[in-house]
Amino acid sequence: YSAVMNTTVRKLAPIFVALLGVGFSTVQSIPIYGEDSKPVGLSQDAAQSIVGILTLMIFVFLVLEWATPEVLLLSSLIICMLLQILTLPETLSGFSNDSMITIGALFIVVGAVEKSHVVDWMARKTFGTGGSQLQGQIRMLLTCFCLSVFFNNTPLVAILMPVVKDWGRMRNISASQLLMPLSYTVLAGSFGSMIGTSSNLTVQGLMQADRGYSFEFFAPAPFGIVGFIGLTIYQILASPYLLPDENVGLLRTARDRASAMMAEIYITEDCKAAGKAVGEIMTSLGVSPSCVIKI
């Protein structure tokens, strides 16, 4: 039932957003605003109740994975517009916010960096393979902290995860003891500059709008450095006891590196390989059947 529900909602979500878009376009021609550009109609209590219901629905839909975040948030925004909870300038103001544009630009920069593998190269060089396990972990955490100051934390974690896993495999360190420290270290480093995390940029935008004041680029750096030092000491001392030391088997490794170790082959009905066993097909291609881990 859950799978059918998920499929149905995913198919209907674009139609629902399209209908809301039509309603959004139609409502612009209706004089629903007063001369002071404030919405009329709903009381404050009613508006708060509707916003609360929408927030609860967003939470439920996200937990059950019935719709994607962008569909839910845009739908809720348009509903608030149609119900006159938000004015037209308030509805569209977020799309012209400097912080949101900066976040979008950062994703473009991170995408280019990811394609160039510059971060991978820097991380592998600075992580190193010599010294004790403690020295290696400190170098790894320090590198992640420095990188997170200049890159948005979410895509940076996605880039560093495979690098940290490979490095831990070379040092015979379980990935379960490295990934959690990686996440928290990048989170601490994101408070080293204004572009490290979306939260900093959001606060920056609110400060500029309300008080006309903006923070310097490294304004939150003292808090980030203190947090990193305290977090590093705690992680080094506590992680051996709190984080599991799981041995990574062959199947687990194959699953983590599926894109590099798996291949899909599509054949037509009139192909000579149609109807043959996988072992026969691989032998005809010059590949040993022993290379197959799982079908």
Automatic annotation (TrEMBL):
Keywords: Membrane, Repeat, Transmembrane, Transmembrane helix, Transport. One of its GO terms (biological process) is transmembrane transport. The keyword Transmembrane helix applies. InterPro entries: Cit_transptr-like_dom (IPR004680), DASS-Related_Transporters (IPR051679). GO terms for cellular component: plasma membrane. It is a multi-pass membrane protein. The chain crosses the membrane at residues 12-34, 46-64, 71-88, 100-119, 140-164, 184-203, 215-237. Residues 59-247 form the Citrate transporter-like domain. The keyword Methyltransferase does not apply. It comes from the Eukaryota. It is found in: Membrane. This is Citrate transporter-like domain-containing protein. The lineage of its organism: Eukaryota, Sar, Stramenopiles, Ochrophyta, Chrysophyceae.
